[in-house]
Design a protein that fits this description.
heterodimer, A: 267 residues, alpha/beta, three-stranded parallel beta sheet, 10 strands, globular, B: mainly beta, five-stranded mixed beta sheet, two-stranded antiparallel sheet
């Protein structure tokens, strides 16, 4: 089925975006990413060791940027200024790569987005030429504000980052989808395959996840499950589900032509 | 003697030195890194010509696993 996810004018075959944190090692990261079929992988930007550990393995070698589309994030940033600085470093690190994931956090307990700072950072980054995918609250009004500022994807949380609580407010996710023309990608909260399918059935354009895969007992198998769930949810959405019929049963089999009952029920 | 802050840690050098030399002394030459000096990106092409001087604050980063 030719049904690409288009972000900032570029087409992707997979609607699953995957994070690279919390795996046992880079070999497992690579195996899980490959099993997921994801083409876009998020990475964090952190201070390097300054000579203490010269042989530290490099993520960029495990997941070559030539094979995957890197999506550097601003995880851990609590202000617009820090987020912008982090992504400028990311662009320098990745030879001018300008597709980025902005997240400006409100507090370390909930990791909920600080939306005023997020909007401010979006403004600065767009002006600076970045293509910004934005982690945000599931608020349709602020999603529209982000769209108007010129970001390239709206990424509402479905529940708290790393919580695995699933799609807690499908109505708001739906409102966000209806409010914007940009791709809407659920970012955060997915715990298992059915959560990813639900997000896609709602009409999301994609799902971004990390912990749901990395913290599974078998991350590679979960990555495979997520791939199928995202595909199944997408096809169910496109196929158009049957309407729900409350308090009404409707037989699937013909009601005519059943054989005569062997004895009267009235008897 | 100059003092430079690299990734939050104080470092001392005999004299101002090229950023490329500082990177080499930290065993980071040839590694995929990005450098910010006093809040501004220093492009890779400018590492050789950029002099690190007393009081400079450097951030040297890499890509790591993350969501």
């Amino acid at each position: 089925m030719n049904d690409p996810l288009v972000i900032a004018g570029r087409s992707y075959g997979s609607r699953l975006l995957i994070g690279t944190g919390k795996y046992r090692d880079f070999a497992q990261t690579r195996a899980a990413v490959e099993a997921s079929g994801a083409e876009i992988v998020t990475v964090a930007i952190r201070r390097t060791n300054i000579g203490q550990n010269p042989n530290e393995p490099s993520l960029l070698e495990a997941l070559p940027p030539s094979t995957f589309t890197y999506l550097p994030n601003t995880a851990g940033c609590y202000s617009a200024e820090d987020a912008v600085r982090t992504l400028r470093l990311a662009r320098e690190l990745l030879d001018g790569h300008d597709l980025v994931k902005l997240e400006v956090l409100g507090d370390p307990h909930t990791l909920y987005p600080n939306m005023p700072e997020t909007l401010e950072a979006t403004k600065q980054l767009v002006k600076d030429g970045f293509k910004v995918m934005v982690y945000c609250s599931d608020d349709p009004i602020q999603a529209k504000m982000l769209e108007d500022l010129g970001c390239v994807a709206i990424m509402p949380l479905a529940s708290l980052i790393g919580s695995g609580m699933g799609i807690l407010n499908p109505w708001n996710v739906q409102l966000v989808i209806d409010a914007v023309k940009l791709p809407v990608i659920v970012d955060a909260g997915v715990g298992t395959a059915s959560d990813a399918a639900i997000a896609m059935e709602l009409g999301c354009d994609g799902v971004l996840m990390n912990t749901a895969v990395a913290a599974a007992k078998d991350p590679v198998m979960m990555a495979r499950a997520m791939k199928k769930a995202v595909e199944a949810g997408r096809e169910a959405y496109l196929a158009g589900r049957m309407p729900k019929k409350l308090y009404t049963a409707a037989p699937s089999s013909p009601t005519e032509g059943t054989i005569s009952p062997s004895r009267s029920k009235a008897a | 003697m100059i003092q430079v802050t690299v990734n939050g840690a104080a470092q001392r050098y005999d004299a101002p030195l090229a950023l490329a030399e500082l990177v080499r002394r930290m065993s980071l030459a040839g590694k995929r890194i990005a450098v910010e000096r006093n809040g501004e990106i220093v492009p890779k092409s400018a590492h050789g010509a950029t002099l690190v001087t007393d009081g400079d604050r450097l951030e040297i980063v890499v890509a790591v696993g993350g969501g």
